[in-house]
Amino acid sequence: MQTRLFKLGFLLVPSLWLGLSMNAFAGGAPVAMLTQVQGDVQVSKDGKEWKKVDRNKFLFAGYQIKTGADGAGKLVNQETNLTQEIGAGSVVEIAEKDAKAVSGTLSEATQDSGNLVNGVGQRFDKAQRYTTVRRSVEKKSTEIKLDTIGEIALSAAYPDLVWSGMGKEYAYRLVIDGKSHNVAATESDMVRFTVPALSPGEHEYRVDVVKGSDAVYEPKKFGKIKWLSSEEEKQIAAGLAQLDKTSPNDDLSKGVFLEEKGVTVSAMDHYRKYFDKYADDTDMYPMLIKAYHDLKLEKQKKEGALKLQDMLKAAGQG
Asked: Given pLDDT bands bounded at 50, 70 and 90, which one contains residue 139?
């Protein structure tokens, strides 16, 4: 049963529109991913300012890649999953749907079964929708409501479930297949709970908000936890190991890979780790904002969108 009570909360009230036009980004979704970088490899957005690359990098239409005498790399087309090899002493330009050699060598496109991160385009297009926010003033809200992700994959290796913190006066009751788990109150804006092992397959869950001994909010709909089998877990582990082999410590690619597998909390964790390290990679920052959106972490989503706006302004792109 859902009840109401008065509580200080946040309600978005129009004050200053901070919409991010698509022109603020590199231009649509990434066309290719540069991977297996060796030697002197540089990337430019405009053919004028070049930055050395030593990791996997998603590339957009208009980008250029330049390799030195000892430089090489591979391009994975995000729509076709076909791979092309860039030779030493080459300049390659990314077009709307493919890549072309301006000088030097770029191999014919071939199928490479080792590619694990591809097809990010649709997810990135969706991610851009969540980067538009309004600056707001705080206003009292009279209703407690907690949204949680509708469907998520968890396992023994990825057991954490997250949801928005409602304030230090509220605890939570996680109900999985009718069994309750009490979760203590916290001041954190994000609650993280390690789910005890479940049998492989689908399980219904919900998160109630509790004050004292009473539930002040119970959702009407259940969410779904898919508990991965040991075989599914091994496949994910093998994929992550392959990513580490081709590009060690590439948390962005790991995040994209895990998101595609439905392991959304771990994907968020890898995105956060990556952007803590590479704060200047504004092109792909919408992926972190999308993870917040999917996990129903509205405060983090809004703060991420405002942070992106500030980064784009600082870079002269806002």
From this structure: low
